[in-house]
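Summary for the funding panel

The consortium committed to producing paired sequence-structure records for every protein in the target list. Below we show the first two records in order, beginning with the earlier of the two.
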Amino acid sequence: MTTTHARRPLRRLTLALVGTIAAALAAVTTVTLPPRATSPPEPAWAPRLPGTVVRGTVHLHTSRSDGSGSLDEVAAAAARAGQDFLIVTDHGDGTRAPEPPAYRRGVLVVDAVEISTEGGHVAALGLPRAPYPLAGDPRGVLEDVHRLGGFAVATHPDSTKRALRWRDWTLPIDGFEWLSADSEWRDEAWRGLLLAGLHYLFRPPETIASVFDRPEALLAGWDAAGATGRRLVGLAGADAHARLGLRGGPDDGERGSGDGATGFALEVPSYESVFRAFSTRVVLDVPLSGDAERDAPALLAAVRAGRVFSSIDGLARSGAFEFFAEGTAGITQMGGTVRAGGAATLHVRAAAPAGAMLVLLENGRPVARSSGVELAFAVPDDPAPPPRAYRAEVRLPGPRGSVPVPWIAANPIFVGVATELAEAPPVAPRAASVAADLLPAGSLAGWTLEHDRDSAGELAWDPGAAPPGGLAFTYRLAERGTPTWTALARRVPDGTADVTRIGFAGRASSPVRISVQVRQADATRDRRWRQSVYLDAEWRDVLLPLEGFRPVTTSLGATPRGRFDGLLFVIDQVHAAPGASGTLWLRDVRLER
């Protein structure tokens, strides 16, 4: 039998051991704590630009998807952090009507959505309610966002998680996150994360900022795009969830609201800590009025125009900052273009801490530096200059030999002609050589319906569709179940090995995105390739090159040009909600050489 007296030494030893470990952790934590964010001194500063600068956060999640706080709770955290606006991007497919812009706790809250595509995630700002789910093919998602008037931002494009990472930079995105808080912690070693967890208890904003590394590849890509005349708006994305757990971690949510938001989780890092760690600054022509219906469009217009810079407040609390060009045509602000043939001077101005360096980069190459309040650089006078993008950074001292993450990073000013990336040009018309007419006038021969057990469809010839008539495909998806789909199918005749594209004319009873697929018969596996196509009430002539088709399952290779034996027009849950119904009309369906 163990006596009470015998247990006392063991208890004292345990307490001593715990105390020693705690003291050691406290000592290590104290020595390694990141320095407190300092406030810049008050230099002799007079603003040169009209307008006002507002501070806020872009890209965050609430309890409507996989965040922990309600809209009001998040707004309260932003108010405590001294922010003016929030652009909320809960996960979804665009079919939820956005909340009207509103002031909550004195903070302008603008509702947006983060959409999951097969090529990464994209935040759609200024998007109204979509008529059908936006998902799947990233090109199709961008087409839909732009058609509906939205602004598409590639989120966490350098994430270590492939499902989150934006992968095709040739697609016409409008902006991207040059810095993502979600990506920054994912590439840290576990020892560093453990130490950061201890630091967070004492200095949350500084700790969050301490894990930020300079995203060299993203910045280089931004500069390379500008050197070609392409305009991309760079933003710092918080991706704030205030949720850390074994399940339902940040950004695991896909479509819908609440995916991945289950399981035990800690509300760290808190919204307020993230909001204090870094922010997005937007230059407005006039101060916010307090009228959300008027202020929200002005805020989004300034973001679209690139009148934006980022500030890592966990390194130092930001003072004033300006970046503009002054020339014969007047003042050009961030995101703008100085036209060729006129003299201009670029100005970078900042109220910065001691030791800060103002840096001006031309197409990624530093061309001027200054440790003072202002840097001025005369743009070379060239009547026909190649595209040049000038970007400004304010850097704080870092470890010797390293280039630190910018304390302040501004959007470029362009010299020459700078344009947004346009959609891929349509296929140039040429004399068609029809390999097979799959829908001769008045005949539905070879066409069949395929669908899941509970969905349905009808097939008929509609002589009134358009001369000389057309196929009418009426579909109804099941109210529930997975997968839910229905398809119009046609067997492709032999002798089409030299087919290079598929053509047809189509329209729909209501706006819809369909999946046009080619299929190769195989009893052992699913062998299909697809492109998505938008249809509405107006007849559209569609021409789909086979090289643009992508495999339905990732294990497949390139499109089996000329070696497919089936053509399908599919309505499924990627772009239609359960219970959806409607009619498609097709005519002049053909395979071309």
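The next record, for a separate protein in the list, is shown here:
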Amino acid sequence: MRGRQTGGEALADGLLRWNVDTVFGLPGVHLDHFFDALYGRRDRIRLYHTRHEQGAAYMAFGYAAATGRPGVFTVVPGPGLLNSGAALATAYACSAPVLCLTTTVSWPMVDRQYGALHEIPDQSGLLRGLTKWSARVEHPAAVPEYLDEAFRQMTGGRPRPVALELPPEVLGQVAPMPDGRAGAVASPAPDEDLIEEAAKRLARAKSPVIVVGGGAQHAGEAVRRLAEAVQAPVISRLMGRGILSSRHDLSLPACAAGDVWKNADVVVGIGTRLQQLREWGADDELAVVRIDLDPAEMHRVKAPTVGIVADAADATAALADRLRGIEVTVRSNYAAVKAAFREEIAKTLAPQMAWLEALRAAMPDDGVIVEDLTQVSYGARVDFPVYTPRSYLSSGYQGTLGCGFATALGAQAALPGRKVVAICGDGGFMYNVQELATAAQHGLGVVALVFNDGYFGNVRVIQKRWYGERYIGATLENPDFCALARSFGVQAERITEPRELPDALERAFASAAAAVIEIPFDIDDMPWVWDYLIPRRLRP
């Protein structure tokens, strides 16, 4: 037993037990006891308080996405929790370990519909729909047990967000506290027979291909060894960028992999939902090997030929070991395929790629790019070279407009020595523009590139292309972004040409403080990027 503590103190000590040193959040009356406990531990837990609950939750997501470690945020119940919902949904889509700590209305009023402050119907049901696991703690002495289970659920198997509801009375009451136990959850060992079967199929393959996703971010070395052993190209869309450096001859942008997929006889999916099976097509000539911690993913699209439920690094390393020294009879020049593709998009997507080439040239190899949803970011999805894991952050299939800047702040909080740049549009940037205050107050040196076209740009290009230029709801009235940034104490400048970007970034990085670089452009001059991004059937 730990002696007598409030539930809030037990919660804070439990976070320390799990090596959490950073919490994002906003205070409120329901959380007072927890924040008071954080005050007593402020030398060991840093609190980043934001200007909106959405910003806090996205920062926790950015922290988790950039590191693989749990990102923790705390918000009041009801409207505070609802404000954080888009970020929780994003963390779920991106398999990010995020812990939401929230409360309920006053305990005697829970589920009574009295109209208590911040009450919403079935808050627990809401959390169940947004998380992998959630629970409500009903006694302060139960806090250590429930917190330990939350971490086990969040980090065991497929990582995804979890949530705890802690009524204010539970946080404030004093009780004898049992000891909690922190400890990593062991992953299942790869089945040796399945590894052997997968190795035999790859050894016979004429045109193998490897697809990696976010679940393989920690498996880069094993992926490289496997790819080199069988001379298979490694492709990814968003979550797997940088697992194999874009400099490697076998690293191939997904948008350049059409012919590869058409001709493949074995595909190895590692830590990925492998939606190519559904979108690009799969026939009886394509053997499917899957490596994933989540057994539910195995049969979601197509039953695999070989399905290995295991940690991506462990299983991929075991497979690479079995194939060491294999004699490869068929080799393709994927470096030439990649070079030809880049030459093509330099012409067809010239405006987007000019900015992206300038950005890549100005960023260190381990610099972190966070994409929001804007035309230049869509160009980055087509091909932006990424050299290290967890250095290209995205909202994945959730596509949450406005996530970029606050997510980048969380990544910067997690990685204070790294350069972090958010690619934003004017529409999305305004979703969390208030977090400029958070960047300034907490010394977070994120650089926001704000591409300002005066529209919700993608809405405009779709209405132009598909709806006969019947424009509605797309035009924006924007502030002077540079003046707005300076009013928060954030440096800002405006540039108009890609050649100006490297110097502007150098000035921003030199200050180590937050910066906004506004880039005006004409959306109608941007080429249609979706021919590369909209999936198309490649096999029957």
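Regarding this second record: The longest strand covers residues 287-292. The mean pLDDT is 95.
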